[in-house]
Design goal:
The structure holds two protein chains of two kinds. Chain A is mainly beta. Chain A folds into two domains: 1-41, no CATH class; 42-143. In chain A, 3% of the residues lie in helices and 40% in strands. Chain A has one helix at 38-41; strands at residues 12-17, 23-28, 44-50, 56-60, 62-69, 72-77, 87-92, 103-105, 122-126, 138-143. The longest helix of chain A has 4 residues, at 38-41. Chain B has two domains: 3-65, no CATH class; 70-103. Chain B starts with a strand and ends with a helix. The mean pLDDT of chain B is 90. The radius of gyration of chain B is 20 Å and the shape is elongated. The chains are: A mainly beta, B alpha+beta. The interface between A and B is medium-sized, with 28 and 30 residues. Strand 5 of chain A pairs antiparallel with strand 2 (12-18) of chain B, so a sheet runs across the interface.
Chain lengths: 144, 106
């Protein structure tokens, strides 16, 4: 038995019609499942792709990225989120041997005083684990 | 050439790069502290000096590289490289292959 996902409606009714013309009307939200929509699933609220020179190649709902120190960045969103309880993910392109990980910074994890804890408009992250790497191509996305 | 916004924070230069979603003057007012200025990115240190961001200093709207800070960064990098080389030598002496040493993150 497969799963049918209806999106875009969390109230009212929906009519399903089979190929032989038989119809079935269901009331939303369904009684046997969960209505999946933006409110329950969340959506990508912001993202950006930054190249090695610090230029933003493309973005959505990000007004700027600021280099605070070697490898330490602050992203600022164009429009604030409803709260700071968002999920954020990111990745870094490795330029040298070894591997690099992007980490998200807080005032308790970073020694740089320019780093702030996440707010509805800003969060800080680290792209370089090695001080010899000033900047690396990277990208991030924010979900809420 | 592109315009960026620079300011100093706790003795460190910060470079704010607008994405273009908002006008730069709006980004200046919204994303940066008072005293930040808009400059062309061509005035920022270039070439080898661009690698030593933590040695950048801002004086009267001009960003330069502090020679003392730069020397300290280079010394720190050389010390790290020396420590890595020493660790690799010791691990190799224990019979580990280059692949095994690399897997250890050295």
């Amino acid at each position: 038995m497969g799963t049918l996902v209806l999106t875009g409606a969390s109230s009212g009714s929906a009519t399903l019609q089979s190929t032989d013309g038989t119809t079935t009307t269901i009331t939303l939200p369904g009684t046997t499942g969960t209505v999946l929509n933006d409110a329950t699933c969340g959506v990508c609220r912001a993202w950006a792709r930054v190249n090695a020179s610090g230029t933003v190649l493309a973005s959505y709902n990000v007004s700027s990225v600021t280099l605070l120190a070697t490898g330490i960045w602050k992203a600022t969103m164009a429009n604030a989120l409803t709260d700071a309880n968002y999920s954020y993910v990111g990745s870094v392109v490795t330029l040298a041997s070894g591997s690099e990980n992007m980490s998200f910074e807080s005032t308790t994890s970073a020694s740089n005083a320019g780093v702030i804890d996440p707010t509805t408009t800003q969060f800080c992250y680290k792209t370089a684990q090695n001080s010899s790497n000033n900047s690396q191509p990277h990208s991030f996305a924010v979900f809420r | 050439m592109a315009q960026v916004i620079i300011y100093e924070q706790n003795g460190q230069v910060a470079v704010c790069v607008p994405t273009g979603e908002l006008p730069i003057n709006e980004v200046l007012a919204k994303d940066c502290p008072e005293g930040a200025i808009i400059v062309d990115d061509s005035v920022l240190p270039q070439g080898d000096d661009a690698k030593y961001f933590d040695a950048w200093v801002l004086n009267s709207g001009v960003v330069t590289v502090d020679a003392t800070k730069k020397a300290a960064i280079i010394a720190k990098q050389q010390a790290a490289e020396t420590a890595k080389t020493t660790a690799v030598s010791k691990l190799a002496a224990l019979g580990l292959t280059a692949e095994e040493i690399s897997a250890l993150g050295v």
